Amino acid sequence: MRTTRYLAVLVLMFALTLLVAGCGGGGQDTAAEGPIKIGFFAPLTGPAAADGDSVFKAAQLAVAKINEQGGINGRQVELVHYDDGLDTKQAVSIAQKLTTKDNVVAVVSGSYSGTTRAAAPIYQEAGIPMISAYAVHPDITRAGDYIFRQSFVGLVQGKAAGKVAVEMLDARRISILHIDNDFGRTLATSFQEKAEELGAEIVSVDSFAFGEKEFTPVLAKIKQLNPDLLYMPAYAGEGAQIVRQAKDLNLDIQILGTEGIDSTLQFLGVAKEAAEGVIITTNLNRDSEREIVQDFIAEYEEQYGHKPDMVAASTYDAFMVLFHVIEQKGADPEAIRQGLAELKNFEAVTGVITGYNELGEVQKPVQVQIVRDGEFHYFGEITDPDIITPPNE
C-alpha cells in the first residue's frame, strides 16, 4: 500500500514538473538557451548613409568578436538590425518592432539625435534599455531611466569647445557657423555660453541646412568681421566644403570643429589639404597608448580596409558596455538597466567611463584632435570636472 502511494506521489510530482515546464516553454528558461538578441538601428540609407555604414561595421565587429570568444556566459549574441533612413517615423516603427516582436533585451542607437530622440520614449515605456552611441541632444536621456548615452551630451562637448577656443587657442573674437538641426543648435548654444563666460565675444552666428554645398557668401561675410576663430558644428560633408571654400577665400583663421567631422573618409578624404590645422572636439584619441584603442583601430582597419571614426568607436563601445553588463548581471532588461546605472571605471575605446549619472549621461574626458599631414592627431584633453560632468536633469 505504501509502495502504491509512493508511486502515486512520484507520478504527481512528475506531472507537475511537466506542467510547469509547459507553461514556461516560451519564456525565460527557453530564452536562456538561445541567443541574446540586441537591437540596433542606424541610417544605412539616406543622407547619413556614410555614418550608418561606419556604425553598422562597428556593431558587426563587436558582435563577431564576442561570439568568437564564446559569447556571453556561453550564449551567442544575435544582432537584430534595421535601417532608419534618418527618418523619425521609421525610427519609431523600428522601436515598436524591436520592443514587441523581436524579443531583444537591449538596443543600441547608431543614429542621429532626431531619430534617437523620437524612439527613446518607446524603449523607455517597454522597459528595454537603450544606449545612444553618439547622438548629442539632451532630451534623449530625459525619456527615462532605461535610456543611456555613450558619447557626450551636447552641453558637455559645447562647453569643452568653448574652453578649447578661449583658453587653449586664445580666441577673443569668434564666429559660429552651424548646421541647423538638433546637433548643430545644441552645440552652438552651449559653446557660445561657455565662450562668453570665459571672456570671448561672439561676433556672428550663422546656420545652414543639411546638404548645403555653397558657403562662399557667409564665409565672405565672416572674413569681413575678422574673427580669431570659426566654430563649426557640422557634419563631414558640409564641413569638408566649408574648409575648402574657406581656403579658397584665404580665410586665414583657426577653424574649430566637432565630432561631426571626425571622419577620415568623409571629411579628410574630401577636404584634403584644406583640412590641415583644423581642430576638433571628439571622444576618440587615435594617438592613445592604451592597448584597447590601438587594438580596435587595427582590427577595424584590417576588417574593413580603412580607419574607424568617432561614430564607429562610440558604437563599438556601446556594445562592449552592454556585453560587460550582461555578463555580470544577466540578460534580463531590468538587470541590464541596473548594471548600466552601477557601471564604474569601464575601460572603453573612447576613454575610461567613470560612470553614468542619474540621467544616464556618460562621464569621461573630452578629446581634442588636430589634423596634421592629413590625419587626426592628439592636441589635448579636457578633464575639468566642471566641463565633463554632465547635467543630472
Q: What low-confidence regions span 5 or more consecutive residues with pLDDT below 50?
A: 1-31
Widest sheet, order of strands: 7-6-8-9-10-15-16
Query: How many separate domains make up the residues?
Result: 2
CATH superfamily placement of the largest domain: Response regulator
How many strands in all? 16
Oligomer: single chain
What percent strand? 15-25%
How would the global form be characterised?
A: globular
Helix content: 40-55%
Write up what this structure looks like:
The model is unreliable at 1-31 (pLDDT under 50). The protein is α/β, with parallel strands linked by helices and 393 residues long. The longest helix is centred in the first third of the chain and has 22 residues, at 2-23. The protein contains 14 helices and 16 strands. Helix content is 47%, strand content 19%. The chain folds into two domains: 31-152 and 288-360, Response regulator (Rossmann fold, 3-Layer(aba) Sandwich), CATH 3.40.50.2300; 155-282 and 370-388, Response regulator (Rossmann fold), CATH 3.40.50. The N and C termini lie far apart (71 Å). It has a seven-stranded mixed β-sheet with strand order 7-6-8-9-10-15-16, sandwiched between helices. A five-stranded parallel β-sheet has the order 2-1-3-4-5, sandwiched between helices. A two-stranded antiparallel ribbon has the order 11-12. It has helices at 2-23, 28-31, 49-68, 88-100, 113-126, 154-168, 182-197, 216-225, 236-248, 264-271, 291-304, 310-329, 333-342, 385-388; strands spanning 36-42, 77-83, 106-109, 130-132, 147-149, 173-179, 201-208, 229-232, 254-257, 279-282, 346-348, 351-353, 355-356, 362-363, 366-372, 375-382.
